[in-house]
């Protein structure tokens, strides 16, 4: 099931006060996912679709960008939140505008590899897979896609967009699941907490 955040209320990061001393990096939103129903019967009521468990069989082709807000159902709030900085939201929105594609999203995945075991893979996509979580901050078109295998490894992290002399890029910061020992010298890979 794909997932999207509810736009009915703003969710602000509870850790903002501790991170507000960082220069030019203010956390804007902490967002939680909402599930997408992948059944072939999309006319079911929203109350019955919220009580359904994830489907194990896909009745429609995947990947797809063909969805409406009615295709989504809320996921109970929990620890599966992602913090986005204003810079990250602005950059995702710019990419959507340049591509003239409101379904464009930043896909963040965790892969095994690197010298410490795990590394982040990021790409721009408009494809939503069955096991994806789709995050969208309230009152923004910016979208973030994370697959179900990666979400437990990066939930609670901050996605930022940093501009430096050598280049600009999206970054995952403050991952509570990453070891405090640090990652490799190049900053690409990281180790899972034991």
Automatic annotation (TrEMBL):
One GO CC term on file: mitochondrion
Residues in coiled coil: none
Biased composition (Polar residues): 54-67
Low complexity composition bias: residue spans: 38-53
Gene3D superfamilies (UniProt xref): HesB-like domain
A Gene Ontology BP annotation from the UniProt entry: iron-sulfur cluster assembly
Region annotated Disordered, chain positions: 38-77
Domain Core: 82-184
Family to which the UniProt record says this protein belongs: Belongs to the HesB/IscA family.
Record-given protein name: BQ2448_5939 protein
Organism of this sequence: Microbotryum intermedium
Upper lineage: Eukaryota, Fungi, Dikarya, Basidiomycota, Pucciniomycotina
């Amino acid at each position: 099931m794909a997932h999207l955040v509810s736009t009915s209320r703003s969710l602000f990061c509870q850790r903002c006060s501790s991170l507000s001393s960082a220069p030019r990096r203010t956390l804007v939103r902490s967002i939680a996912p909402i599930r997408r129903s992948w059944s072939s019967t999309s006319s079911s009521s929203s109350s019955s679709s919220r009580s359904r468990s994830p489907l194990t069989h896909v009745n429609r082709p995947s990947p797809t960008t063909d969805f409406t807000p009615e295709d989504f159902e809320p996921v109970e709030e929990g620890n599966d939140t992602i913090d986005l900085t204003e810079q990250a939201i602005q950059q995702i929105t710019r990419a959507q505008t340049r591509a003239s594609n409101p379904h464009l999203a930043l896909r963040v995945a965790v892969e095994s590899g690197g010298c410490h075991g795990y590394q982040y893979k990021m790409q721009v996509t408009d494809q939503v897979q069955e096991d994806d979580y789709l995050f969208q901050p309230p009152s923004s078109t910016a979208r973030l896609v994370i697959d179900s295998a990666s979400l437990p490894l990066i939930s609670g992290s901050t996605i930022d967009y940093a501009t430096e002399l050598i280049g600009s890029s999206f970054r995952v910061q403050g991952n509570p699941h990453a070891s405090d020992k640090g990652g490799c010298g190049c900053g690409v890979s990281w180790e899972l907490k034991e």
